[in-house]
Specification:
With 276 residues, this protein is an alpha+beta fold. The protein has 5 helices and 10 strands.
């Protein structure tokens, strides 16, 4: 990107500050260099702020755009006992992170070649994101003398989002509508029954499903007990029933009716008895 596209100040504090920044990249890059000198293995820096560019066919320096920008270097996480080989936050990992975030906002972005690419952008790892033909952001692997130094084993990746375009696009979309929270939390109850030793778990599961239908979310066993005290060729099976949340909180009697339906179905089909 040519610096001629950036507005110049008429009375800069110093020669290094005579041009308004066209991107958040210079500041983030400078901070990364400072971190790299301290041998930081993982760096993820973010900034939100304004950048400035001259409008086409205009010398108006007031063309400011608000951006979110980030620069990343190093592994996503440091190695530990389960993941001994760290996953690097490279170009494709950053792309996945950014596009997942945009997808979460329901922004239908397309990838295109960078319209305004810095010389530091890697020629093969760079692109713009556009929505309705407007550039909403960009990302690239940085290929600078510092980032390509052999002492740095990881890629240096930069990404930015034009918050003005993002906000304008979202303001014209239909407001998100969320379903109201259900009136009841997940309800769970435990049952313990005595059945013949030949009765399978699949048979017990089938009875519960026939008794409850769509009310049943999940059923899982948690205890199996065999003893002469239960009777000849008998066993005890304890399990937990989880019911689907309802539009309103069910009463204690309604929940007991659901349990009674399961008990009755088990007794009818399997000869089961409720264990005290």
């Amino acid at each position: 990107m040519a610096l001629e596209a950036s507005p110049a100040l008429s009375n800069p504090v110093s020669s290094e500050l005579e041009i308004l920044r066209p991107s958040l990249l210079p500041g983030l890059y400078k901070n990364w260099r400072q971190n790299s000198h301290h041998v930081k293995r993982r760096v993820f820096l973010q900034e939100t702020g304004h950048a400035y560019r001259l409008r086409a066919n205009s010398g108006d320096p007031r063309s400011s755009v608000k951006y979110w920008g980030a620069i990343s270097y190093g592994p996503v996480a440091l190695p530990y006992w389960k993941e001994k080989e760290p996953v690097e936050m490279g170009f494709w990992e950053m792309a996945g992170l950014m596009e997942s975030a945009l997808a979460g906002l329901r922004v239908p972005v397309l990838r295109e070649l960078c319209a305004f690419a810095y010389d530091s952008f890697h020629p093969h790892f760079q692109w713009d994101w556009t929505v309705e033909g407007r550039p909403i952001g960009s990302m690239a692997t940085l290929a600078t003398k510092d980032s390509l130094d052999q002492r740095h084993a990881s890629s240096l990746v930069y990404a930015e989002i034009n918050l003005d375009i993002l906000g304008d696009w979202m303001s014209r979309q239909e407001a998100y509508r969320y379903a109201p929270a259900l009136g009841a939390d997940l309800i769970e109850r435990d049952l313990a029954i005595i059945v013949g030793r030949e009765v399978s778990w699949a048979a017990i599961l089938g009875c519960a499903r026939r008794a409850l239908g769509s009310l049943l979310r999940e059923i899982r066993p948690f205890d199996l007990y065999v003893s002469k005290k239960l009777g000849a060729d008998k066993k005890s099976v304890a399990f937990r029933l989880a019911f689907e949340p309802q539009d309103k909180t069910p009463s204690a009697q309604e929940i007991q009716n659901w349990l009674n339906a399961v008990i009755a179905q088990l007794a009818q089909d399997l000869g089961a008895a409720l264990r005290d």
